[in-house]
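Technical note accompanying the year-one report. For the benefit of new consortium partners, we illustrate the data format agreed upon in the data management plan: each record pairs a sequence with a structure-token string. No post-processing was applied to the example shown here.
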Amino acid sequence: MQDGDWYYQIHSHLEYTPRSGEKISCVVEHASLEEPLKTYWDPSMPKSDKEKIAIGASALILGLIFGLAGFIYYNSRTQGLFLFESEKNKIAIRAS
């Protein structure tokens, strides 16, 4: 494929589903390289991505806990509370 600036590139695509325990690598041979370039494919997630997921999940769980605690507190404070409104005043009476 032509880049438009007098360079050319080759794209190669291979669809393959790796099996458990297989080690996959890509080898590139080119005249400008002294020896073939070999790159191993690691299907595991990078450590930084794992840390971001763990922090996000922790924040979500903490938010749910605080939200539930707030709902329980609000519900316990308003349970049995009757609100009477007039044009001038609002009166709250707690049932006993």
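Partners are asked to follow this layout when depositing records. The mean pLDDT is 81.
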